[in-house]
Design brief:
9 strands; five-stranded antiparallel sheet; 25% strand; 236 residues; two-stranded antiparallel ribbon; single chain; 26% helix; alpha+beta
Length: 236
């Protein structure tokens, strides 16, 4: 019985050695050769950390990313595979080294938030009689009730949203007008802290909007000077 067991074991290892030998000497080289001619695809790998809200330029692509060519069956369906997909896009999250770049990591550079941008809401007065909606290009003005003087605070900016007195978006604000009692506040992306400070002073008076581009002969220019308004003792 013992001899039989030894014989069976010997035959098993002999056959196993033969299979491994065949794979190593014949099958494996064929698989390697086949892999050389397999369909591949080039995708982008991060080699240096890229911060959130970075606009991807040619320099970023050259110095912070690298191409990697892999068999197509291993390519994630949402991986970025061309420079065109990257150029002038903006990262919406920090990209870390040795990770692939995916479509959901980037958006068009005019979408989302750039560094320093913050949502800012301000009250709208009945002086705004035009119809505005999210994404409308508008000019932001301030009017001083005592002198009836109007100054341009922001020559051109896109409306982000229109909200009611509770801060809730208007149910149907695709053509919302401040003539409606519903609209109480306009919301924009303030580009920087200076714009926010201008609006903080302007909102102490009457802020209203005009549609940008209506007066093509004389486009609005910024005439609001925060320091001058304060120094003239209009605000105390």
């Amino acid at each position: 019985m013992r001899r039989k067991l030894i014989l069976v074991t010997a035959i098993f290892f002999l056959l196993l050695g033969g299979v491994l030998g065949f794979y190593e000497n014949y099958r494996l080289p064929r698989e390697i050769e086949r892999a050389k001619y397999a369909e591949t695809k080039t995708i982008y790998l991060v080699k240096k950390e890229i911060k959130m809200n970075t606009v991807i330029t040619s320099d970023i692509i050259e110095n912070y990313l690298k191409k990697e060519t892999i068999p197509i069956q291993y390519v994630p369906s949402n991986a970025v595979s061309s420079e065109t997909e990257l150029l002038n896009k903006k990262t919406i999250t920090t990209l870390y080294p040795e990770f692939y770049v995916y479509q959901e990591n980037i958006i068009k550079s005019d979408k989302g938030f750039l560094n320093g941008e913050q949502l800012y809401s301000f009250p709208l007065t009945s002086a705004t009689s035009v119809e505005v909606s999210p994404n409308s290009a508008v000019s932001v003005w301030v009017r001083f009730p005592e002198t009836k003087e109007s100054l341009c605070v922001i020559p051109k900016i896109s409306m982000y949203d229109l909200v009611d007195a509770t801060g809730a978006p208007i149910k149907d604000n695709t053509k919302a007008s401040t003539k409606s009692n519903e609209v109480a506040y306009g919301v924009i992306k303030a580009k920087d802290y200076e714009m926010q400070k201008d609006l903080e002073i302007a909102r102490k008076f009457e802020i209203y909007l005009t549609v940008f581009g209506e007066n093509t002969e004389q486009p609005p220019e910024k005439t609001f000077n925060r320091e001058k308004v304060i120094s003239d003792s209009i605000i105390k």
